[in-house]
Amino acid sequence: MLLPAVLLYTAFIAYPFARSLLLSLYDWPGIGPKTFVGFENYRNVLTGYMSREFFRALGHNARFFVLSWLMSMIPGFLLALALSVGLRGTNILKVVYFIPNTLSIVIVGFLWGLLLNPQWGIVNQTLRAIGLESLTRPWLGSTETALPTIIAVTAWRGMGFYILVFLAAIVGINRNMFEAARIDGASEVQVVTRIIVPQLLPIVSTLTVLKVIWSFNVFDIVFAMTGAQAGPAGSTDVLGTLFYRIAFGGLGSSDVGMGLGATVVTLIFVIVLPVSIFYVFILERRTETR
Amino acid sequence: MHNPNRFFVSLLALLTVIAGVAMAGGGQEDATGGDEAPLVEIWGWRTQDAPVWEQVEAELQAHGENIEINYRAFPPTEYDSKLLVSLQGESGPDIMYTRRLPGARTQALIDGEYMIPLDGQVDFGNFTQATLNFIQSNGNTWGVPFANQIIGIFYNTSIFDEYGFEEPETWDELVEIAETLQADGVTPFFIPGKEAWALAMQHAMVGVSIPGVDWIQRLLVGDTNFLDQELVDLNTRLNDLKQYYQANFIANSTAEQDAAFALEEAAMVFYGIWGTTNWTELNPDFEFGYFPIPTVDDSDPARAYVYMDGSYALNSISDVPEAALTVLQFSATPEFGEIFSAATGEMTAVANVSMPADRPILVEAYGLSTTIAAEYIYWVGSPMGAGTPSPYDILREGMQAMYLDEITPLELAQRLQEGVSTWYAPLQ
């Protein structure tokens, strides 16, 4: 019964990863002979000439997690709460909120690139039109705003998913608890803070773990919005774009290093693995308690 | 007892084997003894070259060569990985586009013995040594160069005419032009600051005039280094020039630059000859000119950064090596050069070719590429590009950082020195 799954897992997950792990011990430009260098690649990445870029990218991934958590979870929860009331037009709004999720990352990156254009983009134009010119920025052209902007776009695209998950969880809460609370004189705020929020904590923990995994594997949206160089001045560089540049050279790079790239991938795996194990642990525990 | 099912299965198997043998035999005849023209498979990253190879095929056939050509262009960002995967699987094209030397990608193909030296098999007499330097190593020539690129400042001739400007001969004159335009509400320069490579290119193209090729020659042999005041001055000049760039230029791409320049919203751009085709397509009435970066003193000649864009290499595991070689031999002739430039609007790497008369910018650039090309450079094609980090690697991020006032011109020089000296022996 398990054989097909094991074969697929071995062919598409275990074997490529083992190869990648092995490759991280070699110097290899992608073709021709490989040179065994032991842990030299790890030394270069962790303490050598690549360390500054590596730790900067790692920091950006961490920032990506924190900010995207705040930008996704809190608005996602609040919007789900609003939709759970069941006002007219709720179903249409659900669809509207979910539409960005159906767009490919490349399209999202392209569209927001246009919207955020510093000269004629609609974002700055709108700010000017409503008298908030002081808030206009070169959103993707400033080291201070570029990464938060990308994170905000990511949150915008994924908002529908968080709304749906939270909404499903809120709808699933036993209505009798709300009735009982209201009979006991609880205010609406108390219903939210004392009943709904505690009931959603398992969902929040699951989404948080997934958020860590996604945040440390992020590549596509950064690549789509600021390119392989992840500028300006490396301010949006994450481990994914760093890997891309190292392994495939990026546009016009002087060097390509599959071994060094495999080292970065292995380190990403080392970061994400414990979180993934924790995620599986949470799911298992939840299944057991049901 | 005779089993009819077994009989039919045996018969079917027999027929299958016979059919298979017949088909295999037929195929072999086609491949070896038939009159079918050998098909030369060519892979590259340039979509604009498709008509070139169609014309080359027609030309070869007109010369009595029974050769067919199939050209496949992949997106530039995917080409190298597609090629590597195919070569590792012992397949791939007969002729492959390769990038210039020194460079890790092409060097890997040479080290992996996928490229064959073409000396003695192709006549390289139609190329200048400066061009061949970009594809030679260890005394071997590894490919047939196809295009040269020239970079510098392209300007809107209508705007220059309107203000009565001449092409500047000194840096101060350039700044003066920018100042006049800006005072009159015209954007002097449009800079694609979002694309870090374009900023590194800008630094390099200015570098061949200021501090100049003599300084670069001394840098390459280690007689000076990046901390030299002359380089700090160059960084400062560029940093001072940013006041004449469009607002928020660090957020703009090359596509936006092309649109702004072609639609006459900016007077000048620091770019390459490859952009001209796009500008003309965006605005057929747009007229523009080119000048190399002016020097500090007009007694010093301005120099142009010219580099070879790539070459055609013979795959060592080609199925049709003779036919592929015939194609390569033709691609080294002036006849090919004319086809290439007419079809692509770019400068062929073949010397002494007449550029299309309806493209005066190409005629001018081709002439300059043979007269004022810088012999010593520190961007693509330089010995300093052979290791990591190269000046290119450092300038991409460093230029953005300097333009954003996160580092000073001196700190950019320090980054260059600290980075390149980690591996480039003359600077250690």
Q: What does this protein structure show overall?
A:
The complex is a heterodimer of chains A (290) and B (428). Helices cover 72% and strands 1% of the residues of chain A. Chain A is mostly helical and 290 residues long. Chain A has one domain: MetI-like (MetI-like fold, Orthogonal Bundle), CATH 1.10.3720. In chain A, strands 1-2 form a two-stranded antiparallel ribbon. Chain B is of the alpha/beta class and 428 residues long. Chain B folds into two domains: 156 residues, D-Maltodextrin-Binding Protein, domain 2; 213 residues, 3-Layer(aba) Sandwich (D-Maltodextrin-Binding Protein, domain 2). Chain B is built from 16 helices and eleven strands. In chain B, strands 1, 2, 3, 6, 7, 8, 9, 10 and 11 form a nine-stranded mixed β-sheet that branches. In chain B, strands 4-5 form a two-stranded antiparallel sheet. In chain B, strand 1, helix 2 and strand 2 form a beta-alpha-beta unit. The radius of gyration of chain B is 26 Å and the shape is globular.
